[in-house]
Amino acid sequence: MTGIDGKVVAITGAGSGIGEASALLLASRGAKLVLGARRSDRLEALAARIEADGGTAAWTTTDVRRRGDLADLVAYACGRYGALDVLVSNAGVGPISPFDELRVEDWDHMIDVNFRGVLHGIAAALPVFRKQGRGQFVNVVSTAGLRIVPNQAVYAATKNAVRTVSEGLRQEAGPDLRVTMVSPGYVATEFADSVTSPTVKSQAPTVDFSLSPDDIARAVAFAIEQPSNVDVGDIVVRPTAQS
User: Which of 35, 62, 72, 177 is least enclosed by beta carbons within 10 angstroms?
Assistant: First the structure.
């Protein structure tokens, strides 16, 4: 199967930001969406918007920290549409902080959502993809893992863990499955809302040169629309002003 039209795509973290933008773009190109996130009101509104625009979308409340929720998301996609072609693991949080603040609970939160959540998605979707003889993982990583800076070490570590797992999965995937990493730079999302450190909040940049979530959505769509024998391994998308 090539292109996007008719593909069944499940997206985690679909309630806002990159997940929401990807859902809207993919639906406009004919994908059948299964939306997952914790905020059911956001999912319901997004699905209604997609349907009103002539697209196809369903949703189920999903907390990626719970393995069962990812299993339910994949099962729901297969039950409703008969297959799952793509899993976009987009859910993420970024309560970044200096090490000296010892925000260990924030570290655990990032590990559970950013890394463990991706593993839960792989565990849920891989058996389905193997049985179908096709499937694609699109894992949203970050440029934070490419250039380590102060205050972001744990966040970057979770993203680099996803990068390592994604590459290992790609090597084990064989000729029928595809694995793509999309690494955004600064994007205007709700990411900053998860920051709990007063130190980091006080150092927020005064000039906003962030990309739009739509910019990242186009990268996700690009990877998905390629022919089945083309595996786009890693897409890095930065603002031109980002160092």
Answer: 72
